[in-house]
Design brief:
271 residues, Rossmann fold, 12 strands, binds D-glutamic acid
Length: 271
């Protein structure tokens, strides 16, 4: 018998949808519950201790309520902070994490100059520093923390375009020239940013490879579920829960485009 429990995909907002579309390509019939802790958005600006506690409390409640067969934390800011504690608190549960793609960037760069574009929280994390020490010590890695890009991505997707100048101000520090070499890879280390990647390509001072980890995360989700009995096609639609309980028409439309139906605000609200 198929295991009909859902896959839970989590982010602080719409960023995790960049991962959801890749998960759907590899696991097309699995029921999905998309959870956005938008009441806390942007979590990149939070202090570590209260954010970690909030995430542990929220996941405790979500896992109990929805009993997912795996959970994809489609958020660098959350996973680099609380991933290990979540695995320790829920041993045996299949958590799939999202971390800055520093290792693949270090393997691919020709110039040795790599930039990591992320939230201020991810830039500060010990986890991120450890990734650089372990996998990219031979490279020059520049960490660029953006206070605004996650919000800009939310606005763009809801139909409020952001100007080139505003975007350029956030990405400019990624572009470095040193000893005749220049940055050739920018790691998109916040799941919101791939939604802006085409804009970035147009305004970048020179062409670079913009590394989006979404496909690799989806492959990892498929590996975690390799032993499970997967579902057959069904007509039921997947649901999205936004913790603020605020449901605008714009959000409903956006989610419908991703095959998600916004669950009623009182279904699961953590204001
Ligand atoms: N999408 C999130 C990430 O991957 C962060 C956005 C936020 O600051 O809330 O880090």
């Amino acid at each position: 018998m198929a295991d009909t429990r859902p896959i839970l995909i989590f982010d602080s907002g719409i960023g995790g949808l960049t991962v959801l579309r890749e998960v759907r390509l590899l696991l097309p019939y699995e029921p999905i519950i998309y959870v956005a802790d938008d009441a806390a958005f942007p979590i990149g600006a939070w202090e570590e201790a209260p954010l970690k506690q909030r995430l542990l409390d929220l996941f405790g409640a979500l896992l109990e309520r929805y009993d997912p067969k795996a959970t994809v934390i489609a958020c660098n800011t959350a996973f680099t902070l609380a991933g290990q504690a979540l695995r320790e608190t829920h041993p045996g549960h299949g958590f799939v994490g999202t971390v800055p793609a520093i290792k693949p960037a270090a393997e691919r760069t020709a110039s040795g100059l790599v930039s990591v574009l992320a939230t201020p929280g991810t830039v500060r994390r010990a986890y991120t520093r450890d990734l650089i020490d372990s996998f990219a010590s031979q490279c020059h890695v520049r960490l660029v923390g953006s206070n605004h890009l996650a919000r800009y991505a939310e606005q763009e997707l809801r139909g409020e375009p952001i100007s080139d100048a505003a975007l350029l101000a956030e990405i400019n520090a990624c572009f470095l020239k040193q000893d005749g070499r220049r940055t050739d890879i920018v790691v998109l280390a916040c799941t919101h940013y791939p939604f802006l990647a085409n804009r970035f390509r147009k305004i970048a001072p020179w062409p670079v490879d913009w590394l989006d980890p979404a496909e690799a995360i989806a492959r990892q989700a498929a590996r975690v579920l390799a032993g499970a009995t997967l579902c057959a096609p069904s007509t039921g639609s997947d649901i999205a829960i936004f913790t603020s309980g605020v449901a605008t028409d714009g959000l409903r439309r956006l989610l419908a485009g991703f095959g998600l139906e916004l669950a009623r605000g009182d279904d699961f609200a953590v204001r």
